[in-house]
Amino acid sequence: MVGDVSMTVMDNTQLTAADRCDRCGAQAHLRVRLANGGVLLFCAHHARAHAEKIKQVAVKLEGDVSLVN
Questions:
Q1: Most buried among 8, 23, 61, 64, using CB within 10 Å?
Q2: What does the alpha-carbon distance between residue 35 and residue 28 come to, in Å, rounded to a whole number?
Q3: Per-residue pLDDT of the chain (69 residues; tens, 9 = 90+)
Q4: What is the rounded CA–CA span in Å between residue 48 and residue 34?
Q5: Contact yes or no for 49/37 (Cβ under 8 A)
Q6: Exposure pattern of 32-47 as b/e (b: 16+ CB <10 Å)?
Q7: Cα separation of 52 and 31, whole Å?
Q8: What is this structure's pTM?
């Protein structure tokens, strides 16, 4: 159950210009690690747009975590 997993935030994890948003292909600023081992990358726009859902499913956030706060 995802609700039972505590989320870890790692502010210092840098994403590079090679990291691209899974939704639109723009440069990713947020990496979301999921309980099942999956990883999603979001640009600033899509991270903000999906912030509430990201907070529900994320086990770990890396990069610019201020986008979902």
A1: 61
A2: 20
A3: 344 445 555 555 689 999 999 999 999 999 999 999 999 999 999 999 999 999 999 999 999 999 998
A4: 18
A5: no
A6: bbeeeeeebbbbbebb
A7: 15
A8: 0.81
